[in-house]
From TrEMBL:
This is PilZ domain-containing protein. InterPro entries: PilZ_domain. It comes from the Bacteria. GO terms for molecular function: cyclic-di-GMP binding. Pfam families: PilZ.
Length: 236
């Protein structure tokens, strides 16, 4: 019988919970250093709690590899992640996010917190991180000290990713750029937002499935971003 480990984490907001959920499930797994070994097949259940939601959102894990100590003390455990089978707690958290944003009335479309790495095909381009997405657009951070020169307001933009239900291709243009100071640090986090153009029905359906976290990318989650003429030539 396989050993089972349960870890409980509480979150102050539904946004922070969903952000951690998408980060964990999206990376597909993690390597941990522990003082003692665990048998292959040991199951982890990460319980993500939010006040007002009776049951936790679950992220499941399983130990798939164990490396013995070498130069540094401790064992290296590789844990493969997966989503829990019961969606109802996750749906309740998502509803909290969307209901709160609709009540605020500040945006036309409610945003979903998302943690999704993206890359550009251009050589030496920085990495990008999709931080939120909605029916109307997307917000990204740039993992570099400054925005690339070609990322400007009005620049054509394309976001592509593979989902379980097919390829999702979202086209639009950059509508804002910013440099946000990192918390408790002197450095900044460059970022930008893009709005989507008119989407065909199949793409709209795939986007809606992603917003409900029903149709997800295969792990590890990754996407491709394009700008300017590269984006235009790849647009559907």
């Amino acid at each position: 019988m396989n050993k089972s480990v349960r870890l409980k984490v509480a979150y102050k907001s539904p946004q922070s919970l969903v952000g951690e959920y998408t980060r964990s499930v999206g990376q597909g797994g993690v390597t941990l250093r522990t003082r003692r070994s665990l048998p292959l097949g040991t199951r982890f259940t990460f319980e993500l709690y939010l006040g007002g939601v009776p049951r936790p959102v679950e992220v499941l894990g399983e130990v798939v590899a164990v490396e013995p100590p070498r130069e540094e003390p401790g064992y290296l455990l590789t844990v493969r992640y997966g989503a829990g089978e019961d969606r109802s707690p996750l749906d309740a958290v998502l509803q909290r996010i969307f209901s709160a944003q609709e009540t605020e009335g500040l945006r036309r479309f409610p945003r979903l917190p998302l943690t999704l790495r993206a890359a550009e095909a251009t050589p030496l381009s920085p990495a990008f991180l999709v931080r939120d997405i909605s029916r109307g657009g997307v917000g990204l951070e740039v993992m570099a000290p400054a925005l690339p020169r070609h990322v400007r307001v009005g620049t054509p933009f394309l976001l592509e990713m593979d989902l379980m239900g097919g390829e999702l291709v979202l086209h639009g243009e950059v509508v804002w750029t910013s440099s946000i100071p990192r918390k408790d640090a002197a450095t900044v986090t460059p970022g930008f937002g893009a709005t989507f153009g008119r989407l065909r029905a199949p793409m709209q359906q795939r986007l809606d499935a992603l917003l409900a976290l029903e149709s997800l990318p295969p792990a590890p989650w990754k996407a491709r971003v394009s700008f300017g003429m590269d984006a235009v030539t790849r647009m559907p």
